[in-house]
Design goal:
- The chain has about 110 residues and is α+β, with helices and mostly antiparallel strands.
- It has one domain (about 1-100): Alpha-Beta Plaits.
- Helices cover about 25% and strands about 30% of the residues.
- The chain has a four-stranded antiparallel β-sheet, with helices on one face.
- About 20% of the residues are buried.
């Protein structure tokens, strides 16, 4: 299981889209976000940058952070395209949750 954070910058938002995002900004605050399979969309009043947080589960011993990043980036692209949110500079940061539960070597 991986936690993938996709970060990007809004670009070319028209006034109607900006108004819609601002009307819902309190629901997308980073302090109330979580990593979910569907993704959690966070941004602030400035409407400059955003995050999408995904929980990505991959099967097999060959699963990798790169593969998880690719999944997160594809999901983010689809989400942003579907809602018509112009964007640029998408990048993904991945944390392999298995490493969080592995005890240190003694």
């Amino acid at each position: 299981m991986y936690r993938v954070t996709v970060r990007g910058r809004f670009e070319g938002l028209d006034e109607r889209t900006r108004a819609r995002l601002l009307a819902a900004v309190d629901e997308h605050e980073i302090c109330v976000s979580a990593y979910t399979v569907e993704g959690t969309f966070t941004y602030d009043h400035k409407l400059e940058f955003f995050n999408l947080r995904y929980e990505v589960r991959l099967n097999g011993a060959s699963a990798s952070e790169k593969e998880a990043a690719d999944v997160g980036l594809r999901e983010a692209e689809e989400f942003l395209r579907t809602l018509g949110y112009g964007h640029k500079g998408l990048r993904a940061k991945v944390v392999d949750m298995a490493t969080m539960w592995t005890p240190p070597n003694e």
